[in-house]
Structures are given as structure tokens and as C-alpha cells.
Amino acid sequence: MKRTLVLKVSPVRPKIEVIRVAARIIQNGGLVAFPTETVYGLGVDALNPKAVKAMFKAKKRPPDNPPIIHVADKNDVYMLAKKVPKEAEKLMEAFWPGPLTVILERSKLVPDVTVAGLSTVAIRMPRHKVALALIRESKTPIAAPSANLAGRPSPTTAEHVLKDLNGRIDMVLDGGPTRIGVESTVIDLTVKPPQILRPGGTTYEKLVKVLKKVELHPVAVADKKVKILWARSPGVKHRHYAPRAKLILVEGQRKEKVVEKIQELADKFMREGKKTGVLATDETAGGYRADVVKSLGSRRNLRTVAKRLFLCLREFDEDKVEVILAEGVPLKGLGLAVMNRLRKASGYTIVKADED
């Protein structure tokens, strides 16, 4: 087992000496976890096939699940992609740096392993000073999926990274908690109209304002398993974001019906002797009877809900909860990303409270 070095770094004024230590590791084919505005990423030289393979191994990530390539300069997109359509340029102008990943036709420069053998490449420019400094100092695009073991909730702190990957990677740059808490939105620009494959930190509503016509791929809004042969985006094909406990998502138009159904299920599981958790919101948390109740924040502030999602799922693991009953949130704005993560985390074990 290798020793994982942890270095603290300011998210506002990252010291260049610290960044250079991490950059040298990247240049030598090593693995460095670093903060972005969304979640922590596990970075490797995107153009080094051996390093990319080591990243897949460290994460126990399926080889058909392509990582996102992170850049610090828009010009790098023209190097990584065969062609850059006008829609991509509009989106880069409007949302970069930021939580938006564009899928384009790949150039020959990108190794097969980095794109899981696909003809496309996923690229984004993160909005985080540590991430941008690391990419610049490494002098190479950085392939960086989330810095966790495959399938687990994504890490929003350095502590989460170490829980999963301590001894498996070379270094963690600890820049404190991430700001957004769910991953970037992924939009496929190789199809017309463009399709959102994974909702995330840039909302559907904002994308429509820029591109006028944008579709949501069925997998982005699915409430049951959709068969996917080729995953152009991470977070599409395999089970993701899952805590160790069984998670059941309860959805419904009427909040009181959802609360009623969750309490009914909680009572049932507790009678069976199972340690039961409820993932609630500020408006409802005080009314539940369960072993552990956590709130994501107010339903009126979906930014807070998104930021706390993975943190709460990991805390349930710390509490050794066996079953988590989660409230659904509105499918708008960042709520679409939150619901996408909760549905996947549940393995599509979804109860519709309104159908009783």
C-alpha cells in the first residue's frame, strides 16, 4: 500500500509551491485528488494511458465509464476535439469556468483508454483556483472522475476522499469543502438537438436560455433502470452515489403524502429491528420518528440541498444505518440533479406516495 500525502491548500490563494508538488506527481504519472467547485476529482495526466489505467484501478472503476478531461484554457478544447461546433463555443463563453461538461468528437491526441474507446470526449473547465492552478502547472489536460471508490457517494471534502482512497493514491490537495456538492452537468453536442446526459451544477433552465433547444436524455430523468450500451458520460451506465445502506426514495406531488409514506415505512423497518434513517428537509425533519433523521436543508433552497446531499449519505454510513428513506425534491433547477443522484443511489427503488 502506498502512502497518501495530504497537503492543505487555500481555495482562495493556493500557494504555488504546494501546487507544484502535486503537478510533479501528475507529470510523473501519479494520482492526485483535488477540489473543484462540484466535488473532489481524482486527477491524472489525460494523455498518459498508463496513468489513466492506474486511476481506473485505484477507484475500482469499470473501464467502460469514461472520465471527464479538465482543462484550464479554452484553446485546449481545439486540441482534444476533432471539431468544436458553435454551440460549444456559446456554452464555453457563457458557463466556463464552471460546472458544465461538453461532449464532442475526440481528436487522435486523446488515448483510447481515456475515453473508454469511444469516438467522443467529455471536457470541462472547473471554477476553482486550486483545480485551475494544478492543470496549468501540470502542463497537460487532467482526466478526473470523482475521487471515491466506484459506486460510492461522491466526495465533497478531503476526509471523504481519504475514507475511500487512502493508501490507493499518491496525494490529496485539501482545499476544504466543495461549494456546489453535485457533479457538473454533461451535455452531448454530437447530437441535434443537444442532449443533457447528466443533470448537474449548470441547470437545464440556464442551458435553454443560451441554446434555445435542449433535450433531456431519458437516462437523465429516469425513475426506473434504462438499458445503456455505451456510456458517453460518467454517471449514466453504472450504479453511482450509493451509501452502504439500502436507500428507498419516496416521491410524490403532495408533501404530506410523502411524509406519511416515509413514516409508515420507517415504522415497519424499525419493527423489523433495522436501524432506520430518514433523509428529510427542514420543513419536515422535526415530524419524523426514526433512529436517525437528517435534513438536506430547505426545499426552497435547492443549492443547500445539493451541497449537503453526498455529505448526508456518507454520514448515514458513519451512523451504521441499515435503511435510508429519502424524500424527493422538486424536479427543477438543481433539484433535477439531486433527484438524478437519489434515484441512482437507490438503484431505482422508488415508492410513489401519490399512488396509494
List descriptors.
356 residues, alpha/beta, eleven-stranded mixed sheet, five-stranded parallel sheet, 11 helices, 32% helix, globular
Name the helicity range. 25-40%
Strand order in the largest sheet: 1-8-2-3-7-4-6-5-9-10-11
Largest sheet: 11 strands, mixed
Spatial extent as radius of gyration = 20 Å
Low-confidence stretches: none
Mean pLDDT equals 94
Order of helices and strands: EHEEHEHHEEHEHEEEHEHEHEEHEHE
Amino- and carboxy-terminal Cα gap: 52 Å
Strand content: 15-25%
What does this structure look like?
The chain is α/β, with parallel strands linked by helices and 356 residues long. It has eleven helices and 16 strands. It has helices at residues 16-27, 49-59, 75-80, 86-95, 129-138, 158-165, 204-211, 218-221, 255-271, 302-318, 335-345, and strands at residues 5-8, 32-35, 40-45, 69-70, 100-105, 120-124, 142-143, 171-174, 185-188, 195-198, 215-216, 246-251, 276-280, 292-295, 323-327, 350-352. The chain has an eleven-stranded mixed β-sheet with strand order 1-8-2-3-7-4-6-5-9-10-11, sandwiched between helices. It has a five-stranded parallel β-sheet with strand order 14-13-15-12-16, with helices on both faces. The mean pLDDT is 94.
